[in-house]
Specification:
By secondary structure, this protein is an alpha+beta fold. Helix content is 37%, strand content 18%. GO terms for molecular function: D-ribulokinase activity.
């Protein structure tokens, strides 16, 4: 570590986590017990045009710098107290040239727009072509790549933006780009490459106990796959454009924070920077060991395999680990060491959850009235709707809140189905609409959407357990985990307890843990997780058998809505053939 110019030694050892989400960059400072001392966020720009969703890496870095400085200021933290730094971000795709300057990935030609955002669905047709190749690497992502993964997006750029394609020197996942921008080291993370680029991480099984390995040669790329899908030029220079070297999450990068990046962030040059994680996976690292002491079996390596982490925000990711590799159709993985070292990761997901609730609320006739009333009461729209539902249940003398939606059913696949159906063409369904446009009707529609999302999670959990997992406990983090009705409905519908972490900012904590591991204070990521994770509230499923019977019935309807959709899709295809 570079010597500090500060006149005093740090009084505390703090770890800084940075999380770049879809709409903002956030920074959080944590102490050695994993307690949050201060956080701040800064908005980032986004361009949406149909299926295309784009951002600017320049804008993102400026937002990161603003968030870090503000977080340090709010927490009254001196730069010398920050001992390690870690980044987490959405799995968006960044394009830069040989000078590390942005290269446009936009049909607009705007050079600022050099990031294809994770949710971008421009490459659906490319994904279908890649999947038709039946490449062996596809076995490790549920049998099919999603248009949200990087190979289809890369193929789209090559086919539609030839000039940009020829200019790009590095294609990087956003969290890897952030680490590169901070350290000058373009080593990629096993998390990003394995989960989003078809990299076969288990090629590094023999490296897992090599504490000195920093930049492992990237031996997990399948060159035949890239050749077969028409991207053989990415193999050149030992895969220089997509990653010549990889590292386990938390491994220290380069010589730490560069002087330039340190000045921009308001930190000390040379502090260790850990290899990054995708934001959802950082949430997993920040929460998966947050179990009550009575349940935490210190030396039982299998205990962690009974848990699933829900990282629920704009979308929801469902993370579970196993000691053996489990191939589950329609569910991403198995990804070796992509989240917890030496464990295989299974990753389910719903592409629109918080985004779906926002969409339903904002497009309702009562939206403005509800938003204004929530603002006047200084509470969120979700909190207001939850209060309205509590009032309605009393007025109607119903036994439980879920029964309010007996006539309304929602299939939440408004942005396709990521898991377990792996159908990007799936559409959302709202069954039970009337001419009612009242605030009460909006509250019921919101509740039905929450339930639809929870039925989707139940489908994923049941599918994983039917294919070898033994999930019996859910840990939840992210913005939606702060919504009491969202969490209680999930507990009732899935039928198992949901543990919330002590620190609600689990993604930031996961990112900070990467910085802590990079300092070598902990032997490995697992040890750091057990030290810095801590449990909070536990939400149990309802013990009322009527609640279970009701949700079982609605779950059958939920499953039927998709089966009907397939039938109708087939009927129309035949009619148009």
């Amino acid at each position: 570590m570079a010597a500090s110019s500060s006149p005093y030694e740090p009084s505390r050892s703090l770890f800084l986590g940075v999380d770049v989400g879809t709409g903002s960059a956030r920074a959080g400072l944590f102490d050695e017990k994993g307690k949050l001392l201060g956080l701040s966020s800064s908005p980032i720009q986004i361009w949406k045009d149909g299926a295309c969703v784009e951002q600017s890496s320049t804008d993102i870095w400026l937002a990161v710098c603003a968030a870090v400085k503000a977080a340090c200021s709010k927490a009254k933290v001196a730069p010398t107290e920050v001992q390690g730094l870690g980044f987490a971000a959405t799995c968006s795709l960044v394009a830069v040239d040989s000078d590390s300057s942005p290269v446009s990935v936009s049909l607009s030609g705007d050079s600022r727009r050099n990031v294809i955002v994770w949710m971008d669905h421009r490459a659906v047709e490319q994904a279908e072509r890649i999947n038709s190749s039946k490449s062996p690497v596809l076995e490790y992502c549920g049998g099919a790549v999603s248009p949200e993964m990087e190979p289809p997006k890369l193929l789209w750029v090559k086919e539609n933006l030839q000039e940009s394609w020829s200019m790009v020197c590095r294609w990087m996942d956003l969290s890897d780009w952030l680490s590169y921008r901070a350290t000058g080291d373009d080593t990629r993370s096993l998390c990003t490459t394995v989960c989003k680029w078809t990299y076969l991480g288990h090629a590094h099984m023999h490296h897992v106990n090599d504490k000195n390995s920093r930049d492992m040669e990237a031996c997990g790329w399948d060159d035949d796959f890239w050749e077969e899908i028409g991207l053989g030029d990415l193999i050149e220079g030992h895969h220089a454009k997509i990653g010549r070297s990889v590292a386990f999450p938390g491994h220290p990068l380069g010589s730490g924070l560069t002087p330039i990046a340190a000045k921009e962030l308001g930190l000390v040059p040379g502090i260790p920077v850990g290899t990054s994680l995708i934001d959802a996976h950082a949430g997993g690292v920040g929460v998966i060991e947050s179990v009550p002491p009575s349940e935490a079996e210190e030396h039982d390596k299998e205990a962690i395999c009974n848990r699933m982490v829900l990282v629920c925000g704009t979308s929801t990711c469902h993370m579970a680990v196993s000691q053996s590799k489990l191939f589950i159709p329609g569910v991403w993985g198995p990804f070796w060491s992509a989240m917890v070292p030496e464990y295989w990761l299974t990753e389910g997901g719903q592409s629109a959850t918080g985004a779906l609730l926002d969409h339903i609320i904002e497009n309702h006739a009562a939206s403005t009235v509800i938003a204004n009333r929530a603002a006047s009461q200084n509470i969120s729209v979700f909190e207001l709707l939850n209060k309205m539902l509590e009032t309605v249940i009393v007025e109607q003398n119903l036994p439980f809140i879920a029964a309010l939606t007996e006539d309304v059913h929602v299939l939440p696949d408004f942005h396709g189905n990521r898991s377990p159906l792996a159908d990007p063409k799936a559409k959302g369904v709202i069954y039970g609409l009337t001419l009612d446009t009242s605030e009460k009707q909006l509250a019921l529609l919101y509740l039905a959407a929450v339930q639809g999302i929870a039925y989707g999670t139940r489908h994923i959990v049941e599918h994983c357990n039917a294919n070898g997992h033994k999930i019996n406990t859910i840990l939840a983090c992210g913005g939606l985990s702060k919504n009491s009705i969202f969490i209680q409905e999930h507990a009732d519908i899935i039928g198992c307890p949901i543990i919330l972490p002590r620190e609600s900012e689990s993604v930031l904590l996961g990112a900070a843990i990467l910085g802590a591991v990079a300092t070598r204070k902990y032997d490995n990521l697992g040890e750091a997780m057990k030290t810095l994770n801590a449990p909070g509230q536990v939400i149990h499923p309802s013990k009322d058998p009527k609640v279970k019977k009701y949700h079982d019935a609605k779950y059958k309807i939920f499953r039927g809505l998709y089966e009907q959709q397939l039938s109708y899709r087939s009927m129309i295809a035949q009619a148009l053939s």
